[in-house]
Design brief:
Elements lengths: L10 H13 L2 H8 L3 H15 L4 E3 L4 E3 L1 H24 L5 E6 L1 H8 L3 H7 L4 E6 L6 H4 L3 E6 L7 E15 L1 H7 L5 H4 L4 E3 L5 H8 L10 E3 L3 H9 L4 E4 L5 H6 L3 E2 L5 E12 L5 H16 L1
Parallel strand pairs: 3-4, 3-5, 7-8, 7-9
Antiparallel strand pairs: 1-2, 5-11, 6-9, 6-10, 6-11
Helix pairs in contact: 1-2, 1-3, 1-4, 2-3
Pfam families: HTH_1, LysR_substrate
Keywords: DNA-binding, Transcription, Transcription regulation
Protein name: LysR substrate-binding domain-containing protein
Amino acid sequence: MSQGFNELPSLNALKVFEAVTRHLNFRLAAEELGVTQGAVAQQIRGLESSLGLKLFDRLPRTLALTGAGAGYAVSIRQAFELIDEATRTLRPEPNRLTLSVTPTFASRWMLPRLPGFTAAWPDIDLRVLASERLVQFHHEGVDLAVRYGRPPFGAGLDATLLFSQTVLAVVSPALLAELGNPADSDNCLRYALLHDGHHLWPAFLAFNFPQVSLHHQHHLRFNQTALALEAAISGQGIALTSPHFVQNDLASGRLVPAFPQQMTMDAGWYLVWPRRPREQAPVMAVRDWLLAQVSS
């Protein structure tokens, strides 16, 4: 005679528990689940009461899993992953794929190529998620990401190089004609330096002027490379970027190189994806398509 699951705790309480184990914070778990912080705390208290043991230690600014709670968390997460996998197998969805990229990569590299992607893969429903922060692949439904840096990017993740980072300085031709060649150190001081979140100007100036210590006075600071590039196009100064992000601007003459040399960085733009992707075929198809775009 088969045995039922009469001793199981509330599945809703277990779902709340799993969210809290990731955030170790009732408020953040509540925001993810769309409920109140009090409701999360009540579910955890009820679960601990039904199990007859503590799952979390309440610390002044955070929570910590007890030994029993940590072991339980691993098993519960595996159980939910099994349920999720069984449900998706039963109810297959169309080929949806979420690609997480930085805002600059999205606007400067991805958007011009989207018509080509749609033509090559009309059956893949692509969602582009522009974000600077690192994503949690499984919990945020992200299948593939493009990130700047150096591997490894995390446990259980595979990565392949999309393109290495070289740094090019660009300026509008009108500003170049007005202020003169910035490769001359005196002229360089006349330009505003347009900064982004990568903070590469000190290294770039040292690379181009190894014998001179420039005390530059004119700075404009942005949190994204795309904004610095827009400022450069409008003649506000010199911006630093990957050549891959300004191919169209250089071809059209909206921007020109400000210095003849490019600086090579020990980092690059990488494709990153879970070792066990949710949708193997679409992820590999999009990965190969992105790599082909770079090589072409």
